[in-house]
Amino acid sequence: MMGLTGSRRRASVGVTSTPNAHDDVVDHGLKSRAATVSIVSNALLIAFKVVVAVLTGSIAILSEALHSGSDLIAAVIAFLAVRRAAQPPDEHHHYGHEKVENVSGVVEALLIIGAAAVIIVEALRKLLEGVTIDFVWLGIAVMAVSGVVNLVVSRGVLYPVARRTQSAALEADAAHLLTDVYTSFGVAGGLLLVRLTGIEWIDPVAAMAVAVLIVRTGYLLVMGSARVLLDETLAPDELDEIRRCIKDHQGTIISGYHRLRARKAGSRRHIDLHITVDESLRVGEAHDVAEHIAADIRACIPNADVLVHIEPRSHERVDGS
Q1: 189 in the same domain as 302
Q2: Domain end: 178, 203, 229, which one?
Q3: Beta-carbon contacts of residue 266 (< 8 Å; ≥ 6 apart)
Q4: CA triple 49-54-60, angle to 5 deg
Q5: How far apart are CA 256 and CA 249, in angstroms?
Q6: Can you give the residue range of the structural domain that contains 62?
Q7: pLDDT above 70 (res 2)
Q8: Exposed, middle or buried: residue 250 (CB in 10 Å: 0-12, 13-18, 19+)?
Q9: Tens digits of residue pLDDT in 157-210
Q10: Fewer CB within 10 Å of terminal CB in the chain, N or C?
Q11: Which residues of 256-273 are buried (b: 16+ CB within 10 A; e: fewer)?
Q12: Same domain flag for 266 and 156
């Protein structure tokens, strides 16, 4: 057990740096502030777009106002989700509340797709009835400003915080806003073509192109959140890192391991495995080995809950069996 004593000193750094596993890498206050920025920016952009859509008569700008409306709802959902996910486990939710973020991602995606359906219906109506565009330059300016604001909020605020805290809700909100960036510049380009050519049906056609892009984003968000809700295993690189951490001790304090399983819930990882140890170890010694392996995995994979089951060496099996 000398190898364990020495290696335990090294592992203890990771253990003491994360006294509460629930708070490993997640700054819930930062997540809430990022979601608040998204709410405020969306509310202001909706007001501008609605006013300009009424003044210009542009269905494309109106579609963007509707899209921003879904963005606002999505931002509010993200805000509520990250606050709920921050709650520690309780008697009704033993594994915590992190999957709330993944549920919110699905809801946000459905909102995106619903907004796209409204845009397509309205664009088709305008194509049949005809459309007249006024104050084109005003519309172009508002769309350009909207695109720049959403780009700053998405790339400069939401995505960095989502990556740092591994937040599914903020990542969905960032993807939502990034779609707005593309669509805003697309609408501005369509309005510019209307101004240059005088062909006003370009406006509803541009709106439908916007809707198609929105549907694609919604589909990707649904699939991403659904994989987590269905307990899909971790990414291959994370699984390889877990195996590396375990194999560092294979042949020294453990004989081998098997039944490695891992899944994700919100920003948390749940990992469990079986290790095999020498039958001569006392219960307390075997327990120390298991705790050491769990601590090393937490040091390799931040924000993880790790469960290690101990078996005698005679039960050795192939990893994954």
Answers
A1: no
A2: 229
A3: 85, 96, 97, 98, 99, 100, 101, 102, 166, 167, 168, 169, 228
A4: 60
A5: 9
A6: 21-229
A7: no
A8: middle
A9: 888 888 787 777 787 778 778 877 877 887 788 778 877 887 878 877 877 887
A10: C
A11: bbbebebebbbbbbbbeb
A12: no
pLDDT digits (tens, 9 = 90+) for 47-83: 888 888 788 777 767 777 777 777 787 788 878 877 7
CB 306 within 8 A of CB 294: yes
* CATH of residue 271: 3.30.70.1350
User: Which stretches of the chain are DSSP H helices?
Assistant: 2-17, 28-56, 59-85, 99-129, 136-151, 159-165, 168-197, 202-229, 236-247, 283-300
pTM over 0.70: no
User: First vs last Cα of the chain: how many Å apart?
Assistant: 28
Q: Which CATH number covers residue 136?
A: 1.20.1510.10
